[in-house]
Amino acid sequence: MSAQANPxxxxxxxxxLDAYFAxxxxxxxxxxxxxxxxxxxxxxxxxxxxxxxxxxxxRGIALxxxxxxxxxxxxxxxxxxxxxxxxxxxxxRQLGFxxxxxxxxxxxxxxxxxxxxxxxxxxxxxxxxxxxxxVDAGFGGIRQTVPLKLVPGLVQKTSHEDFRLVEEGSxxxxxxxxxxRWGDICAFGLETAAGADYELGNWFTSTxxxxxxxxxxxxxxxxxxxxxxxxxxxxxxxxxxxEPETHMLSSAEEIAAxxxxxxxxxxxxxxxxxxxxxxxxxxxx
Length: 285
Hints:
The chain is α+β, with helices and mostly antiparallel strands. It has helices spanning about 15-25, 35-45, 55, 65-75, 80-95, 195-205, 210-215, 250-265, 280-285; strands at about 50, 100-105, 120-130, 130-135, 150, 165-170, 170-175, 180-190, 220-225, 225-230, 235-240, 245-250. The chain has two domains: about 15-195, Arylamine N-acetyltransferase fold (2-Layer Sandwich), CATH 3.30.2140.20; about 225-285, no CATH class. It contains nine helices and twelve strands. Strands 5-4-3-2-8-7-6 form a seven-stranded antiparallel sheet. Strands 1-9-10-11-12 form a five-stranded antiparallel sheet. A hairpin with a 2-residue loop joins strand 10 (about 225-230) and strand 11 (about 235-240). The longest helix has 14 residues, at about 35-45. The protein is globular, with a radius of gyration of 18 Å.
């Protein structure tokens, strides 16, 4: 695909850029260059939590631009990859970046030799004078906070983990340095994904009985020098260079309080009982 033109996105609706930048706390430049791209990605990753509450509360996930703006920008909620990267892709293109969406297979925490997962993760490729970059603001657990050069074999340092891309047949495999060993994150191809690819992946991820996001509570948000993760009733804080600290939560009220305090996700009182099923769940897995 030529980097000279952006392919059309379905149901293209302008993003309110001022409202979006206010939501993520970004006050930097807006020209389509690496400095702007880096600033926006870091601001979104550290301001907008990864979360799947709408799925657990039976509200579903909509990917049209208006729904994404309403949820993430106006309601100050989070989302998962199709939502976060779907919004970010539109922002970048509206700013004049040459960018397109990719799709991949999650490999994070998969045992060796496990069968391939479906195409359920959205990523973004951005073309810059310096070369193509990989941008991903929506991977829960170990989210990128900076753009990565799309160069296989290059170890790329960030303020969190080191990352690298490894060639794997016709795909690229994104890995992170997990304390001296390389952990697989996602394998993806370089063919531009279609809107239908995202709709299909989103439908499976948000509704299938075997989906991780249908069965478990997940919230994640990085901050400078640390990451916070809530998995069911287990809150984990990972400070760069230190051993992670874990805290087990013993009630739905404690889970709701953790969502509010650590992820800026207040839970309506009538939804707190839904969280009860996650108490004690992590220890049973």
